[in-house]
Amino acid sequence: VVIGDSDLPPSAGSGGSFGAGSACAAAALACEDILAELGRRMNAAPEDMRLKDGVVAAGTRTSPLADLVRGSPIAAKGKTSPGKESQATSQASHGAQFAEVAVNAVTGEVRVRRMLGVFDIGRVLNVKTAKNQIVGGMVWGLAYALSEDGVVDTRNGRFVNPDFGEYHVAVNADVPQIEAYFIEEIDDSANPVGAKGVGELGIAGSGAAIVNAIHNATGVRIYDMPVTLDKLLPHLPPV
Length: 239
Prior knowledge:
- The protein is an alpha+beta fold.
- Helix content is 31%, strand content 16%.
- It has 2 domains: 19-81, no CATH class; 93-235, 2-Layer Sandwich (Aldehyde Oxidoreductase, domain 4), CATH 3.30.365.
- α4 crosses α5.
- The longest helix is centred in the first third of the chain and has 24 residues, at 19-42.
- The radius of gyration is 25 Å and the shape is elongated.
- 24% of the residues are buried.
């Protein structure tokens, strides 16, 4: 894979959760052309061929892949761009998240005990990296809900807490057991590989689940994130 070179054609970039879907779509289209040429050399339809352990099989005939490309490697190009489906169908990823939260009735201290998320991101291209991204997003959402707060001085527009000493991100001690699972429903309308965005999906839902759990535990609804002690304590019921 070659990326990050100004000699290359422009791409969708890596923001907005469409990097993998766009790049893999072009790669998939190129692979279709490669498969068609391989079928021509094998004298078989692409859908009738099987590739395993470096051997191409079609019916009862087999041939090492190396023999089919020896002396004449197969090269193909794939190109993709937004099509009519982007205007005709909704292609969003979806998820449901759950959190178990404990709130100290005296001090108002909040502790997240466990979190669970189930997600539909279309075809899962890489289970390990996709799960890591989702779990990382859930940790980020936890910090959004409970500690991260960029304080801006309204007189000059500068951040009052520009370092990690005063801008509090979640650390290991803050993060509970987290489970994340995928329901793989390949979305043919999204792109040729059926994959959808995974990047930001874990963040917003986890913060919302935590704030809802705080409300369920205390009856207090806080609308100004993060839910810090000064916002929660005055509204807690008497012990």
